[in-house]
Specification:
Elements (H helix, E strand, L loop, with lengths): L4 H7 L1 H4 L5 H9 L2 E5 L5 H11 L3 E5 L24 H12 L4 E5 L14 E4 L4 H13 L4 E7 L2 E7 L11 H4 L12 H4 L4 H19 L8 E6 L4 E6 L27 E2 L10 E4 L11 E2 L5 H5 L8 E4 L5 H11 L5 E4 L10
Parallel strand pairs: 1-2, 1-4, 2-3, 4-5, 9-13, 10-11, 10-12, 12-13
Antiparallel strand pairs: 5-6, 6-7, 7-8
Helix pairs in contact: 4-9
């Protein structure tokens, strides 16, 4: 498709005739640089709609690969994509969707050393507390607006943080949660289950908030959570106040060390493990890279570990290193103190 002014104007004609958009609004979108963290259930609708709206530059950050169990809700991908990096596949599909948008991808894991300084907006579509708190804290420090969302079964939550405008007077996430919750306190999609339309609806709301923000239209307030209950289709807004004791808002004894975002003492890298000296428990089934692993679920992990003895070194593995931390917690509470989770899970095993 020829990328000229006529083609560009025609592509966005139906939205530029809106009074709230117009040519000036479309120019704002075209000049915007947006970082999307996560190209999964939430990320797919977000990426589809901000690309279609004409956001000028989009970076997709996701180290995950497509799995067959993703396909019922992560609608950018097809069965032929299984095993490939989500960020690369999504970027390719979105370039075909809108040739007027520049799309780049990163397969690095989003972490404390990730650079967000060049972006006008960060959209967090991740599915774990560590990434969400890191994204939040980095956006606060660098005064970047942030849109976050999460889902659980039939429920969704969306928050907008205007750290570019209201950082000093509005509450942040740590005003509500001073410390990151235990990863085992909430089940992920692998454990709790999910219907595909739930992240589709919630991700679309994220996209709408992003587009409105870039256009200068009203969005959710900072310090306000939109709750969506799709099982009976009700919504509710819940607000929280700025805390005078918030360490982040007061820049008081804030640690940006990696250990502040999770109990790394419960994790080991695979390079530290000698399979002949460790008992390995897999929560996700057989893997050729771990031929000595024993298979089980969280429900019977204590029963399996009893075969090894409480002085044994035990490595618990799962797909992404989240469910395995739950397993380690269960076993340590039962007295297995030499029990550890594989950092990053099987997804990072080849990159360790």
């Amino acid at each position: 498709m020829k990328q000229n002014k006529e083609a560009y104007d025609l592509f966005f004609q139906r939205q530029t005739i809106l009074e709230e958009v117009g040519r000036s609004g479309q120019s704002y979108l075209r000049n915007a640089k947006v970082l999307v963290i996560g190209a999964g259930g939430l990320g797919c609708p977000v990426l589809h709609y901000i690309t279609a709206a004409g956001v000028g530059q989009i970076t997709i950050c996701d180290h995950d690969r497509v799995e067959y169990t993703n396909l019922h809700r992560q609608v950018i991908y097809s069965p032929d994509d299984v095993g490939q990096h989500k960020a690369k596949i999504a970027a390719s599909r979105l370039r075909a969707q809108n040739p007027h948008t520049k799309i780049t991808s990163s397969t690095l894991k989003f972490d404390l050393d990730s650079d967000i300084t060049c972006y006008d907006l960060v959209i967090d579509c991740s599915d774990n507390f560590r990434t969400k708190f890191i994204a939040h804290d980095l956006c606060f420090i660098h005064s970047k607006p942030l849109i976050q969302a999460s889902i659980h079964k039939f429920e969704g939550q969306v928050q907008v943080y205007r750290f570019d405008r209201k950082r000093e007077e509005a509450p942040c996430l740590r005003c509500l949660w001073p410390d990151m919750p235990d990863p085992s306190s909430v089940q992920n999609c692998n454990e709790a289950g999910v219907l595909g339309f739930v992240p589709g609806v919630v991700g679309s709301i994220q996209a709408s908030e992003a587009i409105k923000l870039l256009l200068g239209l009203p969005t959710l307030d900072t310090g306000e959570t939109l709750m969506i209950l799709l099982k009976n289709f009700t919504t509710e807004k819940i607000a929280w106040n700025k805390s005078a004791d918030c360490a982040l808002c007061n820049y008081d004894n804030v640690s940006f060390d990696s250990s502040a975002y999770g109990d790394t003492s419960a994790e080991v890298r695979y390079s530290e493990v000698n399979q002949s000296n460790w008992s390995i428990i897999s929560l996700v089934g057989p893997d050729a890279r771990l031929p000595t692993a024993h298979m089980c679920s969280l429900d019977n992990i204590n029963e399996l570990a009893s075969q090894f003895g409480k002085d044994s070194k035990i490595l618990v593995v799962c797909r992404r290193g989240i469910t395995s931390l739950n397993g380690v917690k269960i076993l340590r509470e039962a007295g297995y103190q030499e029990c550890f989770s594989l950092a990053g899970g099987l997804e990072n095993l080849s990159e360790d």
